[in-house]
Recover the amino acids of this structure.
């Protein structure tokens, strides 16, 4: 049912060659009936990153969309921020932080690890906000 409703361009690496890609979709079911595939209202993210200070004019908890090219072991080879109007220094910060740990290695239909293109929704939060939340929780 899902495949019949969606059309996708193939994932491509930094050189434009086709690459293995995995697509994850939200699907909502209620009482056995499909009710759509919109993102939930609570803004789920795939990755939460912390920073010393929020960059530029971005609010706490801003959400960014990243596309990572990973090798078969999950090591990040390249990164691109697809969110509109993101200055280069913010994109560099997000990509640098996202690349500190390997991505989950993708596997083909036979279970073999393969290079991949992976897309993530990332929430960026300052350490001072996290510290304030922890203090508040400890008081309760």
């Amino acid at each position: 049912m899902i495949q019949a409703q969606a059309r996708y361009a193939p994932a491509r690496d930094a050189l434009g060659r086709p690459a293995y890609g995995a697509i994850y979709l939200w699907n909502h079911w209620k009482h056995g009936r499909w009710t759509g595939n919109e993102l939930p209202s609570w803004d789920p993210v795939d990755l939460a990153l912390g920073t010393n200070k929020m960059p530029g004019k971005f609010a706490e908890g801003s959400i960014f969309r990243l596309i990572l090219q990973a090798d078969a072991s999950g090591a990040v080879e390249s990164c691109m921020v697809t969110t509109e109007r993101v200055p280069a220094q913010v994109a560099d910060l997000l990509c640098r932080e996202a690349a500190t740990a390997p991505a989950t290695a993708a596997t083909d239909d036979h279970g073999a690890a393969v290079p991949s293109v992976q897309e993530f929704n990332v929430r960026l939060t300052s350490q001072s906000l996290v510290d304030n939340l922890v203090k508040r929780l400890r008081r309760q």
